[in-house]
Amino acid sequence: MTQDELKQAVAKAAFDYVESILEKDTIIGVGTGTTANFFIDELGKISHRINGTVASSEESARRLKEHGIPVYDLNSVGFVSVYVDGADETNKHLQLIKGGGAALTREKIVAATADEFICIADESKMVQILGKFPLPIEVIPLARSYVAREIVKLGGDPVYREGCLTDNGNHILDIYNLEILAPRELEQQLNQITGVVCNGLFAERGANRLILGTSTGIKTILP
Ligand code: 5RP
Fold it and tell me: Quick one: which of 44, 80, 92, 164 has the fewest CB in 10 Å?
């Protein structure tokens, strides 16, 4: 199977799971990225049965609406029953690196409100130690170089993602050369830097269930 076929397969598996728990009032949180897009396309097949969704990006909201699926502001619904999203890396504890698509802040907010967070990923995303994928950090534009200098003190190599403006009007720094042995601690440390809006470590609130596409089939992994 190609990587795209694996992404499609895990999206379908997540859809089957969500459909099995779907109730009249269920609000589904929907992530961002190519894997999440496959999930959105599955949802499109039952758009008439979906009460509503909350999207983690403008791009996902647009795709959902194209399928005729209602999209709500998180403030008006309060929380989501289930949140389905991809990841850039996951470890076996289902702690994640996210933000390759620059949507990390809204993703973290929606995930925080979710009763259940289901991560969908192909096997290339599973790692022993997080950090090979550069860790995205959303920063207030004015603070970008200050935050970058603070990150160098922590041992990372920040690179400004040129031309990228987040849905919140901020910039992204990608932090290279981190070997993240203590994800929760680093997540908290990064949050302490003035000017950081959000970092792409999802360790405090990792996933509750990982649906992983592998060459030998789909595996469900719990933390
Ligand atoms: C976007 C994300 C995505 O979930 C992550 O980048 C994975 O993307 P893809 O499914 O395209 O591999 O965090 O901000």
Answer: 92
